[in-house]
Amino acid sequence: MGVPGILLEVRGKTLRSHSGEVSFPGGRVDATDPSYLDAALRETHEELGIGAQNIEILGQIGPPEVNLRGNMVVHPFVGFVHAGPSRFDHNMADVDDEPLPSSLTSPARLRASLFRGNRPYWAIGVQDLVPNGMPNPALIEDLPKQQESHSLDDSEIGVGKYGNLEVWGLTGWYLYLLMKRLRLYR
User: Fold this and answer.
1) How many domains does the chain have?
2) What is the 3 state secondary structure string of 78-128?
3) pTM for the full predicted model
4) Residue 123: CA count within 13 A, CB half-sphere
5) Has residue 186 been placed in a domain?
6) Would you tell me which of 28, 45, 83, 105 could form a disulfide with 101, CB atoms 3.0–4.6 Å apart?
7) Is residue 89 part of a domain?
8) In 3-state terms, what secondary structure has residue 55?
9) Where does the Nudix hydrolase domain lie (predicted)?
10) pLDDT tens sequence across 73-127
11) Helix (H) or strand (E) holding 77
């Protein structure tokens, strides 16, 4: 309590896309969403039960990026979650609030990776930080493993390298940009 952290979730294994992966909350814009920010706040409430009234938006982490499948543009917002009555109302996702900076800057957790084949960043191992030891072996068998290749292929889809739970791909890229902005990464 009182220590800044990064809020990440492990997506449910029954979801159609990115199941079992570590991500920030978020998703598609609905017709009822007036803006990308409103969509992000709605999705955060739906996924984690955190109401918009408890989130102070600080800005965007970086520029929008097209997802690997090319069917969505991701607009990454960053905010501060204030404790309140709606915080974590739902038990819909495994949620981890990682303290900064030690958990996400430890050299033992960092693995050099390339985003979209040409932008270096750190993928972060989080297997031991996630409640219940997710993902379980059955889930890992059902998901594609990350390839050694750093080209625009399936290397950014599925669980992390060697079936380990990692913050990587688009989530890893945006976390890297945030950590650089906070001067926790060089």
Assistant:
1) 1
2) EEEECCCCCCCCCCCCEEEEEECCHHHHCCCCEEEEEECCCEEEEEEECHH
3) 0.77
4) 23
5) no
6) 105
7) yes
8) strand
9) 1-128
10) 999 999 999 876 544 544 444 455 555 556 788 899 999 999 999 999 999 998 8
11) strand 77-81
